[in-house]
Amino acid sequence: MAFTATNIFQLNPGLIMHLRDDDDTSQCNSRNRHDSLHPHSIHSRVDSSKRFTPGDPCVVCGDAASGIHYAVAACNGCKTFFRRVVLENRTYSCKNNGDCIIDKNMRCSCRHCRFKKCIRVGMDRSGRVERGT
C-alpha cells in the first residue's frame, strides 16, 4: 500500500500532532565537551513493526522519544534535526576527533557527530512515515 498524506491520516488520526515543527534549538547549550562514546549510549535499531511505548528513550540522545520516526524511537529534536539534514542536504564537520558524546545534554554540541549517530542507530533517510502510540 502506498502512503499518501490522506491515507496516512485515515490510518492514524493521531499523526496530526506529530506534524509540529518542534526543534530543540532553545534547549541546546553552547558547551563543547569532548569525550568518548559510552557503550550504554549506543542503542540498536527499533523494529518499526514494534509498538511505541510512552517513556521509551530516544535512541540518538536518550531523551524521551515521541514515537517511531525514520524507523527508530526518536525525540522530536532528533527527528527534526535528521529531517532537516536530509532534506536540505546539509553537511557538518567535527571540531574534535569525530567521537563526541551525543546525549540529552550534549546533543547540540556537535552536529556532525549527532548525524553520524542518527545513521549508526538506524535512522532511515527514506523512512518518512511517522508513527505514534
Distance from first to last alpha carbon: 21 Å
CATH superfamily: Erythroid Transcription Factor GATA-1, subunit A
Helix-strand pattern, N to C? HEEHH
Question: Can you count the helices?
Answer: 3
Mean pLDDT: 71
Query: What is the annotated CATH architecture?
Result: 2-Layer Sandwich
Proportion of beta-strand residues: under 5%
Q: Give the low-pLDDT segments.
A: 1-48, 129-133
- Here the CATH topology equals Erythroid Transcription Factor GATA-1, Chain A
Radius of gyration: 15 Å
User: What structural class do helix, strand and pairing data support?
Assistant: mainly alpha
Question: What is the overall shape?
Answer: globular
The CATH class is identified as Alpha Beta
* Fraction of helical residues: 10-25%
Major pleated sheet: 2 strands, antiparallel
Number of strands: 2
Which strand order spans the largest sheet, edge to edge or round the barrel?
Answer: 1-2
Pfam families: zf-C4 (PF00105)
Protein name: Zinc finger C4 type
Family: Belongs to the nuclear hormone receptor family.
Subcellular location: Nucleus
Outline of this structure?
This protein is mostly helical and 133 residues long.
Q: How do the strands and helices of this protein lay out in sequence?
A:
Blueprint: H1 5-11, E1 67-69, E2 72-74, H2 76-87, H3 111-120
Antiparallel strand pairs: 1-2
Domain Nuclear receptor: 55-130
Protein name: Zinc finger C4 type
Keywords: DNA-binding, Metal-binding, Nucleus, Receptor, Transcription, Transcription regulation, Zinc, Zinc-finger
Outline the structure in words.
This protein has 133 residues and is mainly α. The protein has a single domain (20-120), classed as Erythroid Transcription Factor GATA-1, subunit A (Erythroid Transcription Factor GATA-1, Chain A, 2-Layer Sandwich), CATH 3.30.50. It contains three helices and two strands. It has a two-stranded antiparallel ribbon. A hairpin with a 2-residue loop joins β1 and β2 (72-74). The longest helix has 12 residues, at 76-87. It is globular, with a radius of gyration of 15 Å. The two termini are 21 Å apart. Mean pLDDT is 71; it is low at 1-48 and 129-133.
